[in-house]
Amino acid sequence: MFWIAGKVIEWWPTLNALHGQQIPLFVGSATIDLTVFLFGIPLAPLLAARFARAQLQNVERSTARLKRNRANLQRKERAKDDFIVH
Known about the structure:
The structure is a single chain. This protein has 86 residues and is mostly helical. The chain has helices at residues 2-11, 23-81. It has one domain. It is 80% helix and 0% strand. The N and C termini lie far apart (83 Å). The mean pLDDT is 81.
C-alpha cells in the first residue's frame, strides 16, 4: 500500500502539499479503490456469468454423486434381504 502511495505521490507532486500521517495510506487505498472500481464494473457481468456457470457445474456434480450413492445403498439393501423361498 505504501509503495503504491509513493508511486502515486511521485506522479502527482501536488499531493506532497497535503500534511498528515494518514495521507500515504489514504492515497494508496484511494488508488486501489479507484482501480478496482474502473476495472471491476465492466468485468462484473463476465465474472458473474463465470461464477454462476461454475456453481451450476458443482450442483450437477453433487447431484450425480448423490444418485450414484443412493443406487449403491439400494443395491446393498437388496443384497442383504436374502429372501429364500422353500
